[in-house]
Structure formats: structure tokens, C-alpha cells
Amino acid sequence: MTPDALFSLAGTLALPGWAILIFAPRRWPALNAVPAVVLPLVLSAGYTLLILAYFAGAGGDFSLIAGVRQLFMDDYVLVAGWVHYLAFDMIVGALAAGLMDRAGIGRIVQAFVLGTVFLFGPLGYLLARSLVGALGPMGLLARTFQPQEG
Fold this sequence. Notes:
Layout: H1 3-23, H2 29-54, H3 65-71, H4 75-102, H5 107-135, H6 140-144
Helix pairs in contact: 1-2, 1-4, 1-5, 2-4, 4-5
């Protein structure tokens, strides 16, 4: 399979997981397992196969930016890197969704945050954690606006 075909396949595999995270109800554990476990495992297996098949022959290494650049000159290793991002971002998205659910953050806000995780992984995770810290039941705003006893 060509690198372009693998790239497309990986993206196509990831999209249902994001659709489930953003739009589906979370009351069904089996459905939640798709983006939290099943699809990350499938993507991880694909990543592993690509790395085993192409990493050693790509040249380069992780010691300097020039070495990383050399690694990613190989299209199969580049696709492996993309699949790595897809898998990890989906895991982070599932984690963030659970955190926001438990904090009582509404699904419209979650959709924006999860879209940010999908596009900009760590930025989305930072946003999710910040919202949970500010808006969750034990968050800063919740503590600030609680009625005072006495």
C-alpha cells in the first residue's frame, strides 16, 4: 500500500472515534470504548507495523533536528508519525471528554475543546484541564461563587 493510501486509511479510521467523542451519548460503555480503546489500539498496531517495516532503513535518529528531519524524509516513517499523533490525540480526547463530563462541562463547550484536541493535541488538553479546573465542581469559579456559611 502506498504512503498516501495509508495516510488516508489512518485518517478515515480516526474520524468515527472523533464523531463518537463529540456527538454520541456517553452513557454506553461499549460505544465509549471505541475512541478510548479500540481505535487507539488499531492505530497503534498500524504504527507498529510501519515502524518495524521502515524505521531502520530510513536513516536519521532522534539526537538532533537534522536526524529527525532525515527520518521523516521517508514517506512511510512520516505516515507512522502521523498515525502516532492520531492514536495519541484520540486517547487524550477520550481522557479530556471523561474529565469534562465528570466536571459537568456542557457538550457544546466540549465539542470545541475536543476539536482543539483533534487539531492541536496538547493545546486542547491544556484547554480541557483549564476548564475543568475553573468550572468543575471543585474548580476555582465554583469555589469563588459558593455561598458562605455563617
